[in-house]
């Protein structure tokens, strides 16, 4: 057979029908609503002319409810690879205009095919989720398809970074696929995510709730903690994907894109000293400290609105990529609670899986006291943070800025928990417990007998801080590398990181550890 005009026309006609998705009207309606189509999202993600579609002509295999007569373009999901910032990325984008982007057997097969390719190519995966869930007409085939996708999500966890963009409905068990990935970006516009929605909740519990209460992007970003990044809309979501990818390696056998500055700078930064409040009881906003440590504009916060007493995010320090973990004394005095421990542990484990060094900034009075915390399992949650730090083998640099008390001193990556370098500012207070609490235990009789017990507490606490909780006590016992002038914090971290980039740490072989869940 020769290549005739008819054959080419036929090929082009077929392609055009597929590119039209659910039809020109439905595509136009989306644009009117300010939403991107499935293909718009991929076009925005990839560098121009680099997208190669896979499985363009795949068709569903449903045979019930009249489905045998229906043609579903691309079976409701556009799948393929392309370049982002010069690096290969695999992506799929569910097309809501084709039976609500619902997932059936072949739709799932396309996604699985892409994920298997990503494993071989060693490329990150980006998934645009805009789907009404299991395709009802396909029954158990749809459920099986979800199972296949979940299996791949888990199989690839820790092998290639997986990023979900929830930009439409994501309901029922379908929400578990993004939850099994590394990061969820969710748009404020058009997206909701829940296991059981308002109707089911009303039917089962009798309680009337709104969609916003149980499934909005804002709720998930600030309350449930399911969402790592809030995006205003599709364009903003793609911007976040680009930024996030810029900090990540393509897979677990690569280092992140470090570009250490050629010159080693030992510059001093007097501005850092000025950030420290005179009164050690006054909270210090750690964001200011972070700004002085990272390269200008190079802090990319993860989970910003959730558990704000602990800040986590990616950063560059003299061109080296790091995962940064910092107590935030401006919120709940920086005390660690269940959510903060979960948030920190998950981030630390991601960094370890993808060879990203960790920098930890410590200013923590302890674990948050309270009945709610104890009954909620702060022991189990806090243990995640300890487990995460102790089990990760990437370079770890810790700086104790001010308070580091009790178990939280260890939970914020002390030397014993595997830190390669631990520096302390002269303002650091390191001890079993805070000064006031310790004084009340140690001097209860003296305080009862004192004429002015409050003044006595202040006096004894000051002495405790100056002598017993002093960083020189820890330094003298070899628990910290050095006490440093805050002005050289950035340069000290950077120099330590350079040296630690070649770190190799081998542990006994095992199937996996048993992190407290
Ligand atoms: C097949 C579906 C569908 C589904 C919607 N459609 N949901 N087709 N299976 N699950 C079709 C509609 O018939 C319609 O087709 C098109 O998609 C758009 O749907 P609309 O209802 O017109 O859109 P909208 O008003 O925007 O409402 C969207 C929606 C609603 C809120 C998502 O469609 C809805 O509630 N759908 C059912 C969701 C659901 O219960 N899914 C199963 C979840 S359980 P036409 O041809 O008219 O354009 C699940 C289990 C997974 O997913 C378990 C994994 C472990």
UniProtKB/TrEMBL annotation:
UniProt-listed InterPro entries: AccD/PCCB, AcCoA_carboxyl_beta, ClpP/crotonase-like_dom_sf, COA_CT_C, COA_CT_N
PANTHER family on file: PROPIONYL-COA CARBOXYLASE BETA CHAIN, PROPIONYL-COA CARBOXYLASE BETA CHAIN, MITOCHONDRIAL
Pfam family membership, one: Carboxyl_trans
Protein's name in the database: Acyl-CoA carboxylase subunit beta
Organism phylogeny: Bacteria, Pseudomonadati, Pseudomonadota, Alphaproteobacteria, Hyphomicrobiales
Top-level division of the source organism's lineage: Bacteria
GO molecular function, one term: propionyl-CoA carboxylase activity
Coiled-coil positions: none
All copies of domain CoA carboxyltransferase C-terminal, residue ranges: 267-507
GO CC, one annotated term: acetyl-CoA carboxylase complex
